[in-house]
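Researcher: Quick test of sequence recovery. Tokens follow.
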């Protein structure tokens, strides 16, 4: 019992949102009765790692240290959560008894969960974890074989994909992985590919199609209002089909968020703008983000750089709707817990859809509404003033008649044709905003908009609307941003009186039209 104590270490990553901090996993062996102690602020799942890793090492036919094994996760004051520390713990333990070289163990970042037979299982967050390792100066990572493609998306790093602990021993001893292991059957965490949607399928609704084109051009938030079945969801679901693809930096950021949520990125970085449409019965944590210790991104962050669609918006809880106010302005959501504070990007394009009343037929020609005036008012007031003021475009959708059954006479334009105009308008914005932190009209700050860009020659329509209380100060800025998007789609360099008038009509729609 008096023999010397041997120590070794390997590296892993503690993720706090998209940010990662390096964690040194130290193992000291010897100097006491055989048992395993894990210290360094682990959570419940990580506290069980000592039994899981010990069983995995012995299950793989490898020796486990005989004496007292102390595992320390350093820095000790940083909360650690998740099962991806298993591989680093096993690596440091094997290095402590000289089954793998101590120096090789120290030079690798190890990420992966272990099964009891020594096989490696996939873990969420591989992409942001590898990004954090590279930013900290590491250039060698070991990941589960099923996540090799995802880890390889990060440039400047050597990825070793191992399917079993025996592969790990071979790699760290400078030998090729043994391979041939039957990999664990992993549950598919992909939300599933949406079938391709196209504006070619939209009959009629010429004004609605044009509203979505303006929204896509300037990245504006939209409120669609109308009777049940009129086509609100149909338009919203096709918005991503006319948005430009993500650029390199955006694709990495969006892919990292989806990696944290457990999505399989073996097909490469996500370059299509994401689309999220949570049901109104979803919990606040699933939409905003949250969890007791492991704070996962919610729907608003999974819609980052894409579209967040809230169908039947008045049915969502007031807490959820009010939580959208800050990210709509800042593009970030901060989730605070007792032990940790996590910040996720949430620069989404919001589309709200609502019926005019609980039964859906208030003000609809030819249909009788059975709701009392008070019920209609209560229903409409569920969307608070502060939320509605942050919406750029308000569009009331009318039922389709003859044009819907037009058959072959009408050939609606495809998404590809609309997307080409949207891309051209976006390029005009990028040129105009090239020396600013913004890239689209919908993001530009009000003061900069009014002081650095040419204003319309006649501002009297805006002044009248402001004086009569039809527009707030924020609403004036929204109208100017919309006017610039209409101007960009028209290929012009200055807001015309016609563009301003159209922008004001887009802004001042909503419930009043149907009332």
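Model:
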């Amino acid at each position: 019992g008096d023999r010397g104590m041997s120590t070794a270490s390997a590296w892993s990553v503690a993720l706090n949102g998209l940010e990662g901090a390096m964690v040194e996993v130290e193992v000291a062996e010897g100097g006491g009765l055989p048992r395993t102690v894990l210290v360094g602020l682990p959570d419940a799942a990580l506290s069980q790692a000592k039994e899981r890793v010990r069983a995995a090492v012995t299950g793989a036919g490898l020796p486990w240290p005989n004496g007292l094994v102390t595992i320390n996760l350093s820095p000790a004051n940083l909360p650690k959560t998740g099962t991806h520390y298993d591989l680093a713990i096993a690596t440091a333990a094997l290095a402590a008894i000289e089954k793998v070289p101590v120096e090789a163990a120290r030079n690798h970042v190890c990420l992966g969960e272990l099964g009891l037979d020594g096989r490696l299982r996939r873990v969420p967050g591989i992409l942001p974890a590898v990004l954090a390792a590279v930013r900290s100066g590491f250039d060698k990572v070991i990941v589960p074989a099923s996540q090799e493609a995802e880890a390889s998306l990060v440039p400047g790093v050597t990825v070793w994909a191992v399917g079993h602990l025996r592969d790990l021993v071979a790699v760290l001893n400078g030998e090729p992985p043994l391979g041939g292991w039957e990999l664990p059957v992993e549950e598919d965490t992909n939300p599933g590919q949406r079938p391709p949607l196209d504006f070619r399928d939209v009959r009629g609704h010429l004004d609605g199609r044009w509203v979505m084109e303006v929204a896509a051009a300037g990245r504006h938030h939209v409120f669609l209002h109308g009777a049940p079945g009129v086509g609100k969801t149909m338009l919203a679901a096709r918005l991503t089909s006319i948005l430009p693809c993500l650029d390199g930096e955006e694709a990495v950021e969006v892919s990292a968020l989806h990696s944290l949520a457990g999505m399989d990125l073996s097909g490469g970085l996500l370059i299509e703008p994401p689309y999220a449409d949570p049901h109104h019965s979803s919990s606040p944590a699933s939409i905003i983000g949250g969890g007791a210790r492991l704070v996962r991104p919610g729907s608003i962050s999974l819609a980052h750089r894409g579209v967040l669609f809230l169908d039947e918006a008045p049915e969502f809880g007031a807490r959820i709707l009010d939580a959208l106010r800050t990210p709509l302005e800042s593009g970030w959501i901060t989730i605070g817990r007792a032990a940790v504070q996590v910040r996720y990007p949430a620069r989404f394009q919001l589309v709200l859809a609502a019926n005019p009343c609980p039964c859906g037929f208030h003000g609809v020609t030819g249909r009788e509404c059975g709701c009392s005036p008070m019920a209609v008012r209560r229903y409409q007031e569920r969307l608070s003033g502060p939320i509605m003021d942050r919406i750029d475009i308000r569009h009331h959708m009318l039922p389709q008649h003859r044009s819907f059954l037009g058959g072959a006479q009408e050939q609606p334009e495809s998404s590809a044709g609309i997307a080409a105009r949207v891309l051209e308008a976006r390029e005009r914005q990028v040129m105009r905003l090239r020396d600013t932190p913004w890239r689209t009209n919908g993001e530009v700050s009000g003061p900069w908009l009014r002081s650095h860009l040419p204003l319309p020659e006649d501002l009297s329509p805006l002044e009248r609307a402001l004086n009569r209380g039809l527009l707030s100060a924020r609403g004036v800025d929204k109208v100017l941003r919309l006017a610039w998007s209409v101007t960009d789609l028209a290929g012009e360099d200055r807001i015309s009186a016609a563009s301003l008038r159209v922008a004001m009509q887009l802004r001042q729609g909503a419930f009043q039209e149907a009332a």
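Residues 328 and 407 are 40 Å apart (CA to CA).
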